[in-house]
Every structure is written in C-alpha cells, then in structure tokens.
Specification:
The chain has about 325 residues and is mainly alpha-helical. The chain has one domain. It is built from 7 helices and no strands. The N terminus and C terminus are likely disordered.
C-alpha cells in the first residue's frame, strides 16, 4: 500500500524537480539577456555622447568656415566693384555705354543664386542626417552656384565713387587693377582658409557617420536583448505557475496522508479503550442494565426463601441499587 502511494508522489516530485531546474536555468538566461542589454545600452549611450560632442565641434568649424567665406565674399565684392569701375572707365574712354537691360537681368539671377547658396549652406550646418555621399553631392552643387554667383556679381554690383584722374587715365586704371588684384588675393586666401577648415571637417563628418552607425547597431543589440529577456520572462511566469500548482498538489497530498494517519490512529485508540476509560461506554452499559428491571447480585440460599417477605407475611424489603461508576477490568 505504501509503495502505491509513494509512486505518484515520486513522479510528481521528479517532475517538480525538473521544472525547478528548468526554472533556474531560464532565470540565468534572463539575467544573461538583461546583462547583455545593459552593456549594449551603456556602450550606445557612450557612443551617442561622443557623437554629440563631435557634432558640436563640427558646428563650430562650419560656423568658422562660414565667417571666412563671408570675408572672402566681401573681398570679392570689392574686387568686382573695382573691376567694374575699370571697365566703365575703359568704356567711357572708348565712348561706349553699358547695357542696362542685361545688368537688370543679372541682378535677378544673382538674387536667386545667392538665395540657393544660403539655403544649401544652412542645410549643411543644421542637417545631421546627411550621409557623406549626399554631402559631397551638395557641395558640388554649392561650388557650381558660387561660380555662377561670381559670374553675375559684376553685372549687379553697386559701384563706389572713385576719384579718377582725367589727365592720367592709364595710371588710374593701373592703380585700380593693383587694388583689384589685392582684393582678389585676399579673397583667394580666405577661400583657401575656408577650404582648409573643410578638410578638417571632412574626417569629422566621417567619424560622425561611423558613430551614428555604431550607435544604431548597439541600440539594435539592446532592443534584441531586451526582447529576448522579456520572452524568457513570459515563459518563466508560465512555468512558475505550473511549479506552484505542483507544490500545492504535493502539500495537499501530504496533508491528506497526515489526516488519514491521524484518523487511523484515533480509531485504533478508541477501539482499545476499556469501559472504565470510556465514560460514554460505561453510561451506556448502566442504562441497559437499569432498563431490564431487577438486578441480582450473587447466588441464593435455602434460608433465604423462608426469610423472604412472602414467607413471613411481612413487607418486602427494598435494596437500594447504586449506580456503578465504572467497570474495571482485570489486569491479566
């Protein structure tokens, strides 16, 4: 009987042990995924911080380059104004006049070109999503627009008043040409300085793109690890429910066995009780004896019949029967 009862318990205990072992293993897996997610998040945050610092440095460099380009533009406008004055002097000297209609058309085209240049420069400074390939394409477009602007500036520049020595036009022209050459050199130097700044910015842009890609890669690892940890956690919750059910069943079986054993022991104990140990049994026997009427104690003698109340003609005597408290059995 004991082996039949222990068999199901052994199976349940074995299954419970297997589930608990699997539960510990799954918790270790979840901890591993969470640790991987934590490391990926830390690395991603570090890379993103480096990217923010690098973008700040790039913006500073681009702002510096813009200032240099602006200075170059100033020198260019001065050069173009001087060159336009020279052409005007030569034209007046030859008795020719400029074409005002053509100059007006050049002013409109120049305005549109300058607007496009400003838009592109602003995008380069503020758009952090551009790839290196896209930036190179935009820079080529910007270079073309700048060349177009340089072609249109002479036709639309506002000429400054220049004192001209009418007695020595050739000397004045040579002097203006020297000034134009100086402005041109200053413009060229400024552009070279701006190009040098750009050469410093290009590797920074490449590093920025690398950090952005690395940050995206680490973020993907973080998300994947978190999803794996959540998936294992969901499986743990299901398995933990089964473990708790098995434990409850084990507890219920143990309590049932204890109850059966307790009831059995109590029934055996009750069966072995003597009347003097069981008040209920003693009272029951007493009531049964009293309900039968007379109770004769011991045997009768021949003299008893003669001394009886019927023989002597007297009143029958009554004997008081005491209720026995208990029956004590023999100790044998």
């Amino acid at each position: 009987m004991q082996s039949d009862e222990s068999g199901p318990d052994d199976d349940l205990r074995t299954r419970l042990h297997a589930m608990e072992t699997r539960l510990r293993r799954m918790r270790d897996q979840r901890a591993t995924h969470n640790e991987s997610a934590r490391r990926a998040a830390d690395s991603r945050n570090s890379v993103q911080e480096q990217g923010r610092e690098l973008r700040s440095s790039i913006e500073e460099k681009l702002t510096e380059q813009k200032e240099v380009r602006s200075r170059a533009k100033t020198h260019q406008n001065q050069r173009d104004a001087i060159q336009s004055r020279i052409r005007e002097i030569i034209s007046n000297k030859r008795g020719k006049k400029g074409d005002e209609g053509k100059a007006k058309t050049g002013v409109v085209a120049l305005s549109e070109t300058i607007a496009k240049i400003g838009s592109i420069e602003n995008r380069l400074m503020t758009d952090g999503t551009l790839t290196l390939k896209a930036e190179n394409r935009i820079l080529r477009e910007l270079k073309t627009l700048i060349a177009r602007r340089d072609e249109l500036l002479p036709a639309a520049a506002e000429f400054e008043s220049i004192k001209i020595d009418l007695g020595d036009l050739e000397s004045t022209i040579q002097s203006l040409k020297a000034e134009a050459d100086a402005q041109h050199k200053a413009m060229t130097d400024a552009h070279k300085e701006a190009d040098g700044i750009w050469e410093e910015v290009k590797p920074m842009l490449e590093e920025r793109d690398f950090l952005r890609s690395e940050g995206d890669r680490l973020h993907s690892i973080f998300v994947e690890s978190r999803e794996s940890a959540n998936s294992v956690h969901s499986e743990i919750e299901v398995l933990l429910k089964e473990v708790n059910e098995a434990r409850d069943e084990m507890k219920a079986r143990r309590e049932e066995r204890e109850r059966v054993i307790k009831d059995h022991n109590q029934s055996v104990k009750d069966a072995l009780k003597t009347p003097d140990e069981d008040e209920g049994l003693a009272d029951s026997l007493t009531e049964k004896l009293l309900s039968q009427g007379n109770l004769t104690l011991g045997g009768s003698m021949s003299g008893d019949a003669q001394g009886s109340p019927a023989a002597t003609g007297g009143k029958p005597s009554r004997k008081k029967i005491r209720k026995p408290k208990s029956f004590r059995g023999r100790g044998k």
